Amino acid sequence: MNSPRKVAIVTGASQGIGAALVKAYRDRDYRVIANSRSIKPSSDPDVIAIPGDIGDRAVAERLVKEALSRFGRVDTLVNNAGVFIAKPFTAYTAEDYANVLSVNVNGFFHITQLAIAEMEKQGSGHVVNITTTLAEYAIDGVPSVLASLTKGGLNSATKSLAIEYAKRGIRVNAVAPGVIKTPMHSPETHGALAGLHPVGRMGEISDIVDGVLYLESAGFVTGEILHVDGGQSAGH
């Protein structure tokens, strides 16, 4: 069932940035395949909610299969799912390491490989990876080695994929947030977290959504790591 209406896949879509991205793409009349481990069914016929661990290739295969069978195409993939564990490097457990790699790296690899294969058939598409400014600009007092290892790898993969697919109509970009006011940060931490940014505040979910939508509409931009981080990447 082919349709000219565009289709986006959004991972980590049950709350926070992911849920806001689902709404933003629907507001642009995209149909959406939304995934997270705990996502609930959608009442919107143009949003297909698929629960499951994105680190599992079978889940990634189902997302793309549903996009094609329900809506006929895949135009955009937003790799928003991610795990951040702030611990001193020597305190990470083998389970921490496996969990972060499964979601941040395996989750990226499987769904991106499958989505790009479909985009290549169409001759068009866009991938956006949500990474972190910490991958390039570490902050004293914010231990983040596993985030740097995994999300830093996604930044590099973003540029590599952008070049590999530039002549095939597929763009690949990333948004690197600072600390964003999402449910993962309890309100009592907001004051301290605001102080990590030169602008003196935490980012809002809408700031990240705006960055993704900019990249969505910026047809001449590929291989970009867009820092939406209140000046963190400029210095401290």
TrEMBL record:
Q: Which CDD domains match?
A: SDR_c
Provide the GO MF annotations for this entry: oxidoreductase activity
Q: Which UniProt keywords apply?
A: Oxidoreductase
| Top-level taxonomic group | Bacteria
Q: What family is reported?
A: Belongs to the short-chain dehydrogenases/reductases (SDR) family.
Protein name stated in the entry: SDR family NAD(P)-dependent oxidoreductase
**Taxonomic lineage:** Bacteria, Pseudomonadati, Pseudomonadota, Gammaproteobacteria, Lysobacterales
